[in-house]
Design goal:
Elements (H helix, E strand, L loop, with lengths): L3 H9 L2 H16 L3 H9 L3 H4 L2 H28 L6 H22 L8 H26 L2 H21 L4 H81 L4 H28 L3 H14 L3 E5 L9 H21 L4 E9 L2 E8 L14 H11 L4 E3 L8 E8 L1
Parallel strand pairs: 1-2
Antiparallel strand pairs: 2-3, 3-5, 4-5
Helix pairs in contact: 2-9, 3-5, 3-7, 5-6, 5-7, 6-7, 6-8, 7-8, 7-9, 8-9, 9-10, 11-12, 12-13
Pfam family, one: HisKA_3
Protein name: Histidine kinase
Keywords: Kinase, Membrane, Transferase, Transmembrane, Transmembrane helix, Two-component regulatory system
Length: about 400
C-alpha cells in the first residue's frame, strides 16, 4: 500500500499539478550541491580529514541544503502568486551561506601552511558551491535585477575570506568570476522553470475561462432569443389590457374585442416560446457532431467522427436523442478529462442504433459521473423515453467508453 498510494495519487493529479511536481523537485535537487563536496572533504586524506574545516564543511553543507530547500519552496510559491513568507527564508538562506563560507575558509588550511591542493581543491570550491547554491532561490523569489545585486553582494562579502586563506588575488578573482558565471546559468535555469510552471497554470486557467465563457455565451443567446420573441408581444398585451380596462370602465363594448386580441396575442406568444425552447432543446445529430469536432479541436483534442452512411435515414427522434448524447458526452470530455484523443462512432446492429464515444486522458481516480452524475442521469432518462439505454463498458486504463443504443 505504501507504494500503491503515491502512484495512485500521481495518476489522480491534473497535468498542471504533475508539471509543477516535476519542476519543483528539479529545483529541490539543485539544493543538494554543497553535500557532495562536504562529504568528499570528510572522506579525503586522513590528515586533512581531522582538520576542523572538514567537520564544519559537513555541517554547513547539511544546514545549507535544508534551508535552501525551504527557500526554493517559498520562492516558487511567491512566483506563482501564492501567499508565502519567502523574503524571510531568502534572507536566512543568504546569511547562512555567507557565514558558512567564512567559517569554512577561516578554519580551513592556509596556502603555505598546508599544501595548495588542499586549499584549492576543497575549501575554496566548497565556499563557491555554497554561494551559487544559495543564489538559486533568490533568482526565483526576487526580480532579476534584485537577484543579481544579491548575488554580487554575496560574492563581495566572501571575497575577503578567500584572500585570508593565503590564495593569490588571481586565484580568488578566477573563482569569483567562475562562480558568477555559474550563478548566471543557475539563476536563468531556475527562473525559466518557475516561468514555465506559471505558463502551465495560466493555460489551465484560460481553458476553464473558455468553458465558462461558452456557457455564458449560450445563456446570452437564449435570453436574447427569448427577449426578441416576448418583448414586443408582452408590450402589446400590456397596452391592449390597459386600453380594455379604460373601455370597460366607460361601458364601451369594444373592451371585449380588445381582450379577445390580448388572448390571441398571448396564445401566439405561448406558441413562439415553445418554438424557441424546442429549437434550444432539440439536438440535430449532424449539427451536434460538427459542433463537437469544432469544440474538441479548439481544446487541442483530436476528434474522429464516423456516423456511417445511414445516419440521415434514422428516424428524427432517434437522431435527436443521439445528438443529445454527443452534446453531453463532449461536455464530459472537456470537464472531466485531460483528453488528447476522442472518437465518436455510429453503427446499426440488431435493429438498434448504437453510438459509441471513447476518449483518453481519464484520471485513475473514479470519475464523478460514474457515481451518478446529473448529465449522464439526464441522458439515461432521455434514452429511456425512446426505449434506449446508456452503458459504460470497461475501457483501457486511462480511457473512458460510453455506449448509447436506441431501437430503430
Amino acid at each position: 500500500m505504501g507504494v500503491a498510494n503515491p502512484v495512485r495519487a500521481w495518476r489522480g493529479y491534473s497535468k498542471p499539478q504533475r508539471s509543477e511536481l516535476y519542476l519543483r523537485w528539479s529545483l529541490y535537487l539543485m539544493a543538494l550541491a554543497p553535500l557532495p563536496i562536504g562529504l568528499l572533504i570528510n572522506t579525503s586524506d586522513p590528515d586533512y580529514r581531522t582538520h576542523p574545516a572538514a567537520r564544519v564543511a559537513l555541517v554547513v553543507g547539511f544546514a545549507q541544503t535544508l534551508v535552501t530547500l525551504r527557500a526554493y519552496r517559498t520562492s516558487l510559491d511567491h512566483y506563482l502568486k501564492r501567499p508565502t513568507d519567502h523574503l524571510r527564508w531568502l534572507a536566512l538562506n543568504g546569511g547562512i551561506a555567507v557565514a558558512g563560507c567564512w567559517a569554512v575558509l577561516l578554519l580551513g588550511p592556509r596556502v603555505g601552511a598546508a599544501s595548495d591542493a588542499e586549499s584549492v581543491v576543497f575549501t575554496l570550491p566548497l565556499a563557491t558551491t555554497i554561494l551559487f547554491s544559495a543564489f538559486g532561490p533568490a533568482s526565483v523569489g526576487l526580480p532579476p535585477r534584485r537577484a543579481a545585486l544579491a548575488g554580487a553582494a554575496g560574492l563581495l562579502a566572501v571575497l575577503p575570506a578567500m584572500l585570508l586563506t593565503g590564495a593569490t588575488p588571481g586565484t580568488c578573482l578566477g573563482l569569483v568570476t567562475g562562480t558568477a558565471l555559474v550563478m548566471l546559468f543557475l539563476g536563468s535555469s531556475c527562473r525559466s522553470f518557475a516561468w514555465l510552471q506559471s505558463v502551465v497554470w495560466e493555460l489551465d486557467a484560460a481553458r476553464e475561462a473558455q468553458a465558462r465563457l461558452a456557457v455564458a455565451e449560450e445563456r446570452l443567446r437564449f435570453s436574447r432569443d427569448l427577449h426578441d420573441v416576448m418583448g414586443r408581444n408582452l408590450t402589446t398585451i400590456a397596452l391592449k389590457s390597459e386600453l380594455a380596462v379604460q373601455l370597460a370602465r366607460r361601458g364601451r363594448p369594444e373592451a371585449a374585442d380588445q381582450m379577445a386580441e390580448v388572448q390571441q396575442i398571448a396564445q401566439e406568444s405561448q406558441r413562439e416560446v415553445r418554438d424557441v425552447v424546442r429549437g434550444y432543446r432539440t439536438a440535430d445529430l449532424h449539427a451536434e457532431a460538427i459542433g463537437a469536432r469544432a469544440v474538441l479541436r479548439s481544446a487541442d483534442v483530436a476528434c474522429e467522427i464516423d456516423l456511417g452512411g445511414d445516419a440521415d435515414r434514422l428516424p428524427a427522434p432517434v437522431q435527436s436523442v443521439l445528438g443529445w448524447v454527443i452534446r453531453e458526452a463532449t461536455t464530459n470530455v472537456l470537464r472531466h478529462s485531460e483528453a488528447g484523443r476522442c472518437a465518436i462512432r455510429l453503427r446499426q446492429e440488431d435493429g438498434r442504433a448504437v453510438l459509441e464515444l471513447e476518449n483518453d486522458g481519464v484520471p485513475a481516480v473514479p470519475l464523478p459521473s460514474q457515481g451518478g452524475g446529473t448529465g449522464l442521469r439526464g441522458l439515461r432518462e432521455r434514452l429511456a423515453a425512446h426505449d434506449g439505454e446508456l452503458t459504460l463498458p470497461q475501457a483501457a486504463p486511462g480511457s473512458f467508453r460510453l455506449l448509447a443504443s436506441v431501437p430503430l
